[in-house]
What does this fold into?
Amino acid sequence: MTKDGPYVVNGGVPLIRERMIIGAEGEPDAWEEGPAIPAPETYALCRCGQSGNKPFCDGSHFVSAFDGTETARRGTYLEAAEKTIGPGVDLTFSAEFCVAARFCHKGEEAWGYAERSDDPEAKEEAVRQAGACPSGSLVAWEKTTGAAIEPELEPSISLIENCPNGLTGPLWVKGGIPIEAADGFEYERRNRVTLCRCGQSARKPFCDGSHLKS
It folds into this structure.
């Protein structure tokens, strides 16, 4: 993050469009990766939501007097997560990271599947729904080892599109890319997180689903 300015991305991180596939029940069912967006080794992504050259910054934050103050809690995911214990798989959920992507609301919902996870099909669905959560607010855990069941994600940034209301969503940061605050603090490094790009989140730099209300 830069102070009241864009996200500056270093290291040639791939930038990709990614859209939700909506299933027959009207809820998100899968992700479809689109074409890569040409980007240089270092680039700046809009954080205020006002750029005329999205996803890249065009300096609009100066005109709009964007307040990019980072208000997210600077702790770990597990410190604020609730746990659902199932016979075959456990789930943790943190409302602090939820972006209302709704992959966990298909059918019986992820928590119901976890509670019935002695059934292999229910366990598989609980793990699938947790792994599709872009922000990592929902995580599945192995019963035997206690290890997180994480999808294999290469370091990249996806622009989430085709949210349930047709709006664009947050920046989906994948593969353990370090995220550094404007003051140099490094947030907990995670396999998947989502960053606000509408400028309205109350938990900056992370998305809180405010784009769905705008």
